[in-house]
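Figure S7 source data.
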Amino acid sequence: MSKLAIENVSRVFPPVRGGAPTRALEPTHLAVGDNDFVTILGPSGCGKSTLLRLVAGLDTPTTGRILLNARPVTGPGADRGMVFQSYTLFPWLTVAENIAFGLREKGVPAAKRKEVVATWLERIGLTGFASHYPKQLSGGMQQRTAIARALANDPAILLLDEPFGALDNQTRALMQELLLGIWEREAKTVLFVTHDIEEAIFLASRVVVMSARPGRIKADIPVDLPHPRHYTVKTSPEFSALKARLTEEIRVEAVLAAEGH
Amino acid sequence: MKPLAPISNGARVTLGVSFFVLFFAGWAVATLGGYVSATFLADPITMVKDGWELITEHGFLFDIGVTIWRVVGGFVLAALVAVPLGILMGAYKPVEAFFEPFVSFARYLPASAFIPLLILWAGIGESQKLLVIFIGSVFQIVLMVAVTVGSIRRDLVEAALALGARDRGILGRVLIPAAAPGIAEILRLVLGWAWTYVIVAELIGSSSGIGHMIIDSQALLATGQMIFGIIVIGVIGLISDFLFKAANRLLFPWSLA
Ligand SMILES: Nc1ncnc2c1ncn2[C@@H]1O[C@H](COP(=O)(O)OP(=O)(O)OP(=O)(O)O)[C@@H](O)[C@H]1O
Ligand SMILES: [Mg+2]
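Tokens for the predicted adenosine-5'-triphosphate complex:
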């Protein structure tokens, strides 16, 4: 039994001002097992965000259905944690209050909330920043907080939409290790969208490659690199072989995408 | 000078004060130098003397108090009605569709044109003055609050939804706190407008207040008193603005860079 089942899901956006409708996502099938870390790799505009928003319940599929723990997704909910491509911390709440947002909404008592928040602050290395406002944080700190905010809710699945897309390379690498460390310890199911090939391989237990628009899944490649993974794995021959293969897959799509625009 | 480059606090205060100094100097030169007849414009010294006389002999402080109470009273009533309605309109599109056309229409009805009607309905007592301020402010606040709430970043709402927030949580824990600084700014702005309505209301059928004093002084051609009254209004505006800004800084520390 898979944790998440995406069955025949497609999304067509209605035409904008007399144009043609946008087929953002072709009918797609994807099964994500318990504790899987699936990365979705694809060129810009191929429907990655669209797919993730459908799973999050923030958008409704044109066809097909999505099952989480065998129950159909009908709208957004606390069982799916989401980290967005843009910075979405609540600017009027401190780091600690942001992390506690979902717990408060669930009615978790204050003492328990405090405990969970303290744990997550420590895991993301922001204990000293508990009462800072988002504006006072760097981009990397904000995304770490956003991850903690999603995970503090203890969701069945974590959805991440290019969470490190706006960060510099060094910070990005550190964030990847942090996230991977959390996943190795917490055994979460993760769906992670990216257009960075190295990131996709380093984090994943499976890489799903999407084609250029209209998006569909064109390859599904398991990553058997051992855990716990260290950043040095990025220089191993296995990693390079995977990278070469994915680069080839993606290049074809990028060329198509460029021609299509 | 570079575009948008910040300046130090000292420089800001100096520049702000120096405009006032220049303004008064220009006024003093024009009047004391004999370029403008005293019948039309009193000089600053006469103005201060007249003002002192108003306060010590004619109980002008009472008039000031009455006017402040009218502005604040009418404005608070308007805010109590308009802010909740504006929030609901911003948050729920059917509510907006219901009220928005009427409010947009009512907004253009000039509050001062209602004064004769309101005197007919409510007499020349306090309730009429409050109503003028109320009518002048309420529609403006409703519309601006609705726009502010309606334009809250969509992704923040989605983030809250993905964290399990329901309708009430979205309204109370996302839309309202996100819009709060904007709403405070709207209130500050509209309070300024309320001051112009109150004076107009007091010019007609009133026996107290700053506006009443100004009309009385006109009969006596006491331009010093009239100008003193106008300056008092300006000073009160400046103070209330300052208080509003200080309160905003205290209430919304997160919205500052
Ligand atoms: N609300 C919408 N209305 C109309 N078209 C949309 C909407 N959202 C997305 N699209 C279209 O769907 C396609 C896929 O968009 P999507 O945001 O899923 O791409 P993406 O793979 O996440 O790209 P990127 O890597 O740049 O974030 C795009 O062509 C986009 O124009
Ligand atoms: Mg995207």
